[in-house]
Amino acid sequence: MNERKYFVHPTAVVEDNTTIGEGTRIWHFAHVRRGAKIGKNCNIGKDVYIDVDVEIGNNVKIQNGVSIYHGVKVEDDVFLGPHMTFTNDLYPRAFNQDWELVPTLVKKGASIGAHATIVCGVTIGEYAMVGAGAVVTKDVPPFGLAYGNPARLKGFVCYCGRKLEEKVSEDENYVIFKCSHCGSEIRVKQEHYKRYLKENKL
What we know:
Layout: E1 7-8, E2 13-14, E3 19-20, E4 25-26, E5 31-32, E6 37-38, E7 43-44, E8 49-50, E9 55-56, E10 61-62, E11 67-68, E12 72-74, E13 79-80, E14 85-86, E15 104-106, E16 111-112, E17 117-118, E18 123-124, E19 129-130, E20 135-136, E21 144-148, E22 151-156, E23 166-170, E24 174-178, E25 185-189, H1 190-199
Parallel strand pairs: 1-4, 2-5, 3-6, 4-7, 5-8, 6-9, 7-10, 8-11, 9-12, 10-13, 12-15, 13-16, 14-17, 15-18, 16-19, 17-20, 19-21
Antiparallel strand pairs: 21-22, 23-24, 24-25
């Protein structure tokens, strides 16, 4: 008899035909639907809902009350803050029988703050950070810092999560920042930096 290598709290519901990686923990009253794929060493908090065929990578931390609907893919090392939610339909009606699924992608290392809403069809880039309560209606670039309603690109963050303030150099392709906290150098594409300047009228 194979002993499962992940933890499911007795009150959680995990449907058949799911894939759950070693070391993952699924806590009180969570619901994981059929076809969902969850990687290794994830933490699925209380009251989390993971819909049909959702894909979640390794080392993902999902805080209490998060809803992840069909069409969402979450890559490795992502943080999803308490009670944030995704959508998957741009024209929702209770009586609509032929609605169109619109996918959403959260890339490696990104963090999304508490009570944020991610409108479907966007990509949250690598190591980006979305502020608490934000309503995200368009893509957030790698290392981008976005917050507000609707969310705007308000700067860039380091791997460690701190806002980048020190610009050390730039060329036609990249702006290079140095993190004052950990010393890492982060390369931001010029197109993303110009978007930041435009959105903030700088």
